[in-house]
Write a structure and sequence with these properties.
Layout: E1 2-5, E2 16-19, H1 25-36, H2 48-55, H3 61-72, H4 76-86, H5 89-113, H6 122-143, H7 148-154, E3 156-161, H8 168-176, E4 194-200, E5 203-209, H9 219-233, E6 237-242, H10 253-256, E7 261-266, E8 284-287, H11 296-311, H12 322-339, H13 346-364, H14 370-377
Parallel strand pairs: 3-5, 3-6, 6-7, 7-8
Antiparallel strand pairs: 1-2, 4-5
Helix pairs in contact: 3-4, 5-6, 5-13, 6-12, 12-13
Length: 384
């Protein structure tokens, strides 16, 4: 079957033909061989169709990134965020801010060009800077999002931490619903970091099992403990595990300053209560038993609630990449310089607005982004 898409209404904005054939490898290979005999025909490069759509103004760069995220989405929350970005929510916001800056700069330059004719009252010029201050505050509020969008793209990091034989690996296997970690009665079985990706209520969570924390450990186990602490310091949530049949260990002091939320997880609750508790304060304490499945629903429900609080979609579009954040931060700095330069030559203040607008233009891909395009499109498959 052959489908004809006439430009500019096609995905790329150009005339496009799609060939639909049976999916067997031999059939597809034969079709490709036949196509290769046509003059001026070649295989598409990675992301070439989407790249053409970008160059033909069918998509801006944030929409291209949204498409990439949609292809890679593993959970429903990631899919919804990617779809919203692909539909233009983020790009439209940045384009609107950029248009405000360009319009304001035009008014300021008009003030410069016609300064002797009194065509632009001082009150109008003052209003421009008041509006720019409001825009600056909007961008700062947009940046103050606790990296919600980036964390949703990559998934929350939840680290299982605690002394050896506290039931971390058994809990990991139970939550993953498969054997990820080796479980034995011998203390110190887990020496390296193990990761499993979970979908909890539509939210992406990376659960990380680590080596047991203890003072007396061999060289290999000490390296495992070091790696465990490195991951814990970067975590969004630490599940500090403890069991009735293991010797208590104190939570490392450095983790209390890491910024991660810390829950106390009393594992092996079927063996009885835990006599000695750690001294740190916790926002959540849960008793669980993998053997009897006690408390597992409570733990899963609490983890889903934690994910929703931290990476659940909100009404306003979210920043999804570090490059967006970098350009927005620079935009605010340029705006601050212009707003605070009262009394300086108007040409200098206008230049600050130009730079601020350019930063927003680089996010949507309309200014000086050729070097960036190769990085973005190399992760696309050939068909996109």
């Amino acid at each position: 079957m052959i489908l004809w898409f006439e430009g500019p209404g096609s995905f790329t904005g150009e005339d496009t033909v799609e060939l639909h054939c049976h999916g067997g490898r031999a059939v597809v290979a034969a079709v490709l061989r036949a196509l290769s005999t046509f003059e001026k025909t070649r295989p598409a490069e990675q992301g070439e169709f989407t790249r053409r759509a970008f160059h033909n103004n069918k998509l801006d760069l944030t929409e291209v990134e949204g498409l990439a995220d949609l292809i890679d989405a593993e959970t429903d929350a990631q899919r919804r965020q990617a779809q919203r970005q692909m539909d233009g929510a983020l790009g439209d916001l940045y384009s609107q801010w950029r248009e405000t800056l360009i319009r304001s700069r035009a008014m300021i330059e008009a003030e410069l060009d016609f300064s002797d004719e009194d065509d632009i009252p001082d009150s109008v010029a003052d209003e421009i800077w008041v509006e720019l201050a409001k825009l600056r505050d909007q961008i700062v509020a947009h940046l103050s999002d606790a990296r919600r969008g980036e964390r949703l793209r990559s998934g929350l990091q939840v680290v299982l931490l605690g002394p050896p034989n506290a039931g971390k690996s058994s809990l990991m296997n139970k939550l993953a619903q498969r054997d990820v970690a080796i479980v034995t009665p011998e203390a110190g079985t887990t020496r390296d970091v193990l990761e499993v990706h979970l979908d909890l209520g539509g939210y992406p969570v990376t659960l990380i099992d680590t080596a047991g924390i203890r003072e007396s450990a061999g060289m290999i186990e000490k390296e495992g403990i070091r790696r465990a602490l490195v991951h814990a310091e970067k975590a969004d949530l630490i599940l500090w595990t403890h069991a009735p049949n293991v010797e208590a260990e104190e939570l490392p002091e450095s983790l209390l300053q890491s910024g991660a939320e810390i829950w106390r997880l009393n594992t092996k609750s079927d063996l009885g209560p835990i006599a000695d508790h750690d001294s740190f304060e916790t926002t959540e304490e849960i008793n669980v038993s993998v053997r009897e499945e006690g408390g597992m629903n409570t733990l899963l429900s609490s983890l889903e609630s934690f994910a929703e609080r931290n990476i659940g979609l909100i009404e306003n579009p979210l920043i999804t990449r570090e490059r967006h954040r970098s350009h927005l931060t620079q935009c605010v700095e340029d705006l601050d310089r212009g707003i605070q330069a009262e009394g300086f030559p108007i040409e200098l203040r206008g230049e600050d607005l130009r730079r601020a607008a350019d930063q927003l233009g680089r996010i949507t891909g309309r200014i000086d982004v050729e070097d960036l395009l190769d990085v973005i499109f190399r992760d696309f498959c050939v068909g996109k």
